[in-house]
Amino acid sequence: MTAAVIEAEAPAPSRGARVLAWVRRNPTIVIGSAILLSLVGLAVLAPWIADDPLNFEPTNRLKRPTAQSWFGTDRFGRDVYSRVVYGTRISLVVGLSVAVLATAVGLAVGILCGFYKRVDGVVMRVMDGMMAIPAILLAIALITLMKASLLIVIIAISIPEIPRVVRLVRSVVLTVRALPYIEAAIASGTRGLAIMARHVLPNTIAPLIVQATYVCASAILLEAGLSFLGAGTPPEIPSWGNVISDGRTFFQIAPWIIFFPGVLLAVTVLAINLVGDGLRDTLDPRIARRM
Amino acid sequence: MSATTTPALEVDGLKKHFPVYKGVLSRPAGAVRAVDGVSFAVTRGETLGLVGESGCGKSTVGRVVLKLLEPTAGRILLAGEDVTTLAPGAMWTHRRRVQIVFQDPYSSLNPRMSAGAIVGEPIGNFGLAEGAERQERVARLFRRVGLRPEFMRKYPHEFSGGQRQRLGIARALAPEPGLIVADEPVSALDVSVQAQVLNLMIDLQEELGLSYLFISHDLAVMRHISHRIAVMYLGRIVELADKRTLFAEPLHPYTEALLSAAPVADPARKRRRIILQGDVPSPARPPPGCHFHTRCPYAIARCKAEDPALGEVAPGHHVACLRREPGAPPVALTPTV
User: Fold this and answer.
1) How many Cβ atoms are within 10 Å of A291's Cβ, its own excluded?
2) Are the Cβ atoms of B157 and A183 closer than 8 angstroms?
3) Phi/psi class of residue B22: alpha, beta or left (left: φ > 0; alpha: ψ in -120 to 50)?
4) Quick check: pTM over 0.90?
5) pLDDT by 10s per residue, chain A, length 291
6) Cα(A257)–Cα(A73) distance, rounded to whole angstroms?
7) Residues B69 and B214 in one domain
8) Interface residue ranges in chain B relative to chain A, Cβ cutoff 8 Å
9) Can you give the pLDDT at residue B319?
């Protein structure tokens, strides 16, 4: 009876209150996603908020930031602000595509390795080999084999990221497989594919999502690094790496060319990592979810 | 043998050896003889206790009976049907007959499934009921094990250890098995909760006519729930008897030592504590002859050479000890050291 009284007296918190409580508990996710959302806004709205990033104005070379060109101009008189805004598109597209591609391939391969010992021995040695080569070198090698294009850049960055995902998925699958609830499932008549789908996969998703955010951040950095080295995104496409690369030789007389894309790059990676850390904390099954 | 007297489970000469690999090339180098020739039967409605210290192979017996592990040798008969060599696909139809309850109430439930889904899974697997009917069956199982049906929507982490174990029991009951292998089902629980879960299991046995193969190292628990008890040492059964007989007059020196180690809630009672010397030998290299002779206070020269068989010394009382063999001159066992 007392329980009923208590229930009646304490009204269920409203939807707004619950959302607010969640926001307060997960400030990193909220801040990180807010930054990411504004970056996505920049990328989507680029044609309306920025000028043509390829527009030459040879008379306006290496100008300081002014009211006309907020981030100044580069050695061809191109507007750095417009180039940085358009560069956001490249970075986000590369980050997201690599995260999706590497995670999908890594998940499939990792589950195979976790379940079939024969596949495991061979595939994991290949993965070890891939991890022994620095990601940027492997990506450069892959890009030089093919004609430079954005798609090739995405594939070339995904390949060195795959082993990290495979390792994670494989270790989770091996851990989960040895747990009694898998034995219980077998004993109660659950068969192979259903065990994978019902018991193994759902317990792999949480760490995988967290890993995907880190893959995304590292892909954005790798793309910028490749562009900076001139081995990545073709130079006619304004990506942050290309802009920084262009401004490198002038950084003593025109530091704004590398300053603004550099800051945006750092902020983006920081935001993604904030979201990743926040997700890791909320998705951890050991921390009871109350939402 | 008529259908009603067919034992729920019969195990004959069961062996499970785990190969040990050594070196870079992983060449087989011997085997761990976890279970080394075990025979017993569990009749309908009976609880057979399997007792022994850690590493004696009692849990392995449970897993082999469920065919979660393939036996190395021997025969397993579930309700009279030989399932020893069945491939996973063919075994599937027999899985309904035997279920398992695990020791760890935490890792034996999938944290990402709701309690209702966990208990309902076996019902769906065997196509026993679908949709609303399945929900109704799950709700009945919840009530049967003392959980409120509203808990079906909750997730495992929202339950206490005892409640989780009740969920595990409900899942085991779901496909309506005749036999449940209970692998230390109360060892991870508080003593007060242990009694509740044990009593629940006893009630269920009376209501549903279940047979239990009850694995535990806890003699007090064994005494409470078992009808007959088998004592295991280093992969073999050394003594098998009715509960009363076993506790009153243990015939195997190991059983004697084991019982003397259990506390008795009576300070006035004088007890002779038998303390065994040394450690359990490695099951990868069990000693020749009687496995127990290295630690047996009554061992004689013959024990090192001859392997005692499990023989019936009194009706229903089986012992594997050379000094207790039928026909052997009756000896009052006295320590040789």
Assistant:
1) 9
2) no
3) beta
4) no
5) 444 444 444 456 678 888 888 888 888 899 999 999 999 999 999 888 888 888 788 787 777 888 777 888 888 878 888 899 999 999 999 999 999 999 999 999 998 898 888 889 899 999 999 989 888 888 888 888 888 788 999 999 999 999 999 999 999 999 988 899 999 999 998 888 888 888 998 888 888 988 999 999 999 999 999 988 888 888 888 889 888 988 888 888 888 888 999 999 999 999 999 998 888 887 765 544 443
6) 7
7) yes
8) 63, 66, 68, 92, 95-96, 98-100, 102-104, 107-113, 121-122, 125-126, 157-158, 168, 171-172, 174-175
9) 92
| Domain encompassing residue B171 | 3-19+33-226
Q: How confident is the model at residue B22 (pLDDT cuts 50, 70, 90)?
A: confident
Residue of B nearest to A286 (CA): B157
**How are beta strands B311-314 and B179-183 bridged, if at all?**
unpaired
How many Å lie between the alpha carbon of A15 and the closest alpha carbon of chain B? Answer: 20
Same domain, B258 and B134: no
Under 8 Å between Cβ of A180 and A123: no
User: For residues B26 and A11, what is the distance between their CA atoms, to the nearest angstrom?
Assistant: 65
Is residue B231 domain-resident?
A: no
Q: How far is B165 from chain A (nearest CA, A)?
A: 12
CB-based contact B108 A288, cutoff 8 Å: no
Rounded to 5°, the CA angle A53-A80-A249 comes to 115
Asked whether residue A219 is assigned to any structural domain, the reply reads yes
Nearest to A87 by CA among A249, A270, A223, A218: A223
A279 within some domain:
yes
B240 occurs within a structural domain: no
- Count residue pairs from A and B with Cβ separation < 8 A: 69
**One domain, residues B135 and B203:** yes
- pLDDT of B329 reads 55
CATH number at residue A92: 1.10.3720.10
Question: Counting Cβ atoms within 10 Å, is residue B182 exposed (0-12), middle (13-18) or buried (19+)?
Answer: buried
Q: Strands B211-216, B47-51: parallel, antiparallel or unpaired by DSSP?
A: parallel
User: Would you call B157 and A288 a contact, using CB atoms and an 8 Å cutoff?
Assistant: yes
Q: Say yes or no: B258 and B214 in one domain.
A: no
Does the beta-carbon distance from A184 to B171 stay under 8 Å? yes
- Say if A5 falls within a structural domain: no
* Reduced DSSP (H G I as helix, E B as strand, rest coil) percent helix, strand, coil of chain A, to 5: 75, 0, 25
The answer to whether the CB of B119 falls within 8 A of the CB of B138 is yes
ipTM of the complex: 0.84
CATH number at residue B123: 3.40.50.300
Give me the domain span that covers residue A264: 21-58+69-283
> Which whole number is the average pLDDT over B40-65?
92
Of B69, B85, B79, B72, give the one whose Cα is nearest residue B9. B79
Q: Is residue A271 assigned to a domain?
A: yes
Which pLDDT value is given to residue A8? 44
Q: How many domains does chain B have?
A: 2
